[in-house]
Amino acid sequence: MAKADEAVTSFKRGFSCSQAVLSCYSEELGLDRDVANRVACGFGGGIARMGNICGAVAGAIMVIGMKRGTTRPDDTAARERTYALVQQFIRDYTTKNGSIACPDLLGHDMADPVQFKEALEKKVAARICPGLVEDAVTVLERILNE
User: Fold this and answer.
1) HEC states along 25-94?
2) InterPro entries, from UniProt (predicted)?
């Protein structure tokens, strides 16, 4: 199964967008899937439904850090490569979706109880987020393989 399909399936099973993205890379990152899901749990819904960065984007940034990030404070080359990849990811994702902010992507501010309730009633996340998760993994795969 392709990673994007795996991530979408994970999201549709009930995991958050951030969990879906990070966990589909867990095996190749040497990370237990349960640990990946715990690490990414708080990033869903614009970081704990606070209307910030899309959880799928946050999950992708975690993957970039796990694959290319530095383990030493003096490894400025790895830090710069990681930052460049994250910047490229954000540019490409924004070009595709118009934003990386959860409220912009969903058209609802999940931090606002009234808008959150409306989003639930309209099944906004179920309709929109699978595509955002797929886009995050597709963009991530492309930039990691360039």
Assistant:
1) CHHHHCCCHHHHHHHHHHHHHHHCCCCCECHHHHHHHHHHHHHHCCCCCCCHHHHHHHHHHHHHHHHHHH
2) CGCAxxGCC_motif (IPR010181)
Range 38-43 average pLDDT: 97
- Report which DSSP code applies to 96: H
Angle at the Cα of 24 (from 89 to 100), degrees rounded to 5?
30
pTM listed for this prediction: 0.95
Cβ(25)–Cβ(105) under 8 Å? no
Is the distance from CB of 47 to CB of 62 less than 8 angstroms? Answer: no
**In terms of C-beta density within 10 A (0-12 exposed, 13-18 middle, 19 or more buried), how is residue 92 classed?**
middle
